[in-house]
Amino acid sequence: MSRTSGALAALALALCLLTGCSALLERTYSTAEPHSSKFWESEAAGTLRAENHQDVVNDLLLLVGQHRETATLRLYDFKSELAVTDTLEEAAAEVQQETPMGAYAVEYITTSSHPQRGYYEVAVRIGYRRTLEQLQAVVNATSPEALYSLLAAALDDGKTELAVRMGYWGADGGTRVEDAMRQLREERELTETVPWVVNYYPGGENPGLVEFLLDPPEPEEGEFPEEGEPVLGEDGEALSGEAGEEPPGEGGEAPPEGGEPDSASGEPEEPPEEGGEGEEGAEPAGPEEEGGGKN
Fold first, then answer.
1. Residue 291 neighbours by CB distance under 10 Å
2. Where does a domain end: 107, 129, 151?
3. Which strands form 209-213's sheet, in the order they lie side by side?
4. pLDDT at 250 over 60
5. pLDDT digits (tens, 9 = 90+) for 56-97
6. Is residue 188 part of a domain?
7. Disulfide: which of 2, 75, 95, 285 matches 102 by Cβ 3.0-4.6 Å?
8. Distance (Å, rounded) from C-alpha 20 to C-alpha 33?
9. Is 133 helix (H, G, I), strand (E, B) or coil?
10. What is the distance in angstroms between the CA of the first residue and the CA of the last residue of the chain?
11. Residues β-bridged to residue 45
């Protein structure tokens, strides 16, 4: 009887110990699965959905980030086709003109909508002026202070361009960019080479992306007009007059109205007095010649 009680006590102790150990051995785990954004339609592969203006903007930015050239959108809760058209135009303009990545990468965005039962189906086409490799090479930086090291690393790697997405710009961001370039060009003895080109997207006041062209092409000879040559417009016409032609008022005055200038004085000749006879310039006969002279 005592052996049975001892065995039961030992078994109960073992169970308690195992329960405690199981709590200590508990671990959390996670699985990696393909990301499913709320903007994608679950039943239609490759189709995005949107219910308002901001959703359309997010959809387009998602496509730009993937460098997608064509896609399909389904717009819900839009009351009319006019509302759909206005929303698409405003969203496309916002992405291309007001977002850093859109201004940097997108050349154009076109859309066409067709009403369906319960939604509008929109065909989207995006043209790019940057390649997928260029988009994938964009570097993220928290502030302009990181630009010096990023530029130095780009030169060490032999890169000819660098695109940096800025998390914070600040009031002196442009000054910091110039300082970083000047310091690095002096240290690398590049001051005599062609200056680097810097582009700000979407604008220079508060850019979200800065692009550096580290090996821009040299300007061709004759690209800029020399002194004395006319400045030509896009249509090839001279904007400042023909070469060698002096406009009125420069180097001489225009002749006055009413007569040609005299070769000596530049004044117009006076017409002969009325009533004269004979050839031009002949003097009228004096009183002594009329009717004979006095004896």
1. 7
2. 129
3. 139-141, 161-166, 209-213, 197-201
4. no
5. 999 999 999 999 999 999 999 999 999 999 999 999 999 999
6. yes
7. 95
8. 33
9. helix
10. 199
11. none
